[in-house]
Here is the input.
Amino acid sequence: EEYSHNQGTRWNKNVITYSIGRYTRDLPRNTVDSLIESAFGVWARASSLTFVRSPTRNADIMVEFVTYNHGDMFPFDGPRGTLAHAFGPGLGVGGDTHFDDDEHWSAGGRGFNLFVVAAHEFGHALGLKHSQNPDSLMYPTYKSSRPANLLSIEDVVNINRLY
Ligand SMILES: CNC(=O)[C@@H](NC(=O)[C@H](CC(C)C)CN(O)C=O)C(C)(C)C
Ligand SMILES: [Ca+2]
Ligand SMILES: [Zn+2]
Ligand SMILES: [Zn+2]
Here is the structure.
């Protein structure tokens, strides 16, 4: 999968830690914090997983806003195009989730909805692949009109097949 650079298939634990590194200037930090927390909450409500924010940088899932070349083999491409990517479960870079800061990130207004994109990326960070079902959160193309409940039945089934 081009956008979920897989390490393993799943985490071998149910409590997964995350930490937020570089932020975007598009939104206040505490807004980013709550949107990221809510995006993890989508998966926590549908599974037996819990997500704990960690102050240190050795959390399982490192969340960062970066541009172009940023230290992995998958440089971003400037405005539009690819919005974000995530590595599949595993040590080190495993689970890490990067957002292209050349996009305009929003909490619902103009620009790309950070909550919706983060929920998709965290699906990859948990081990899910893309779905061909346009109603699935794991569909490969951004849809601003995502339903409030976000996850399709297929997504709930798939996360519970994995954990
Ligand atoms: C608006 N641009 C798009 O819709 C682009 N799609 C994405 O950036 C995906 C993320 C969306 C689904 C949140 C990349 N991905 O799958 C990460 O895990 C393109 C379809 C142009 C590649
Ligand atoms: Ca881009
Ligand atoms: Zn994806
Ligand atoms: Zn990256």
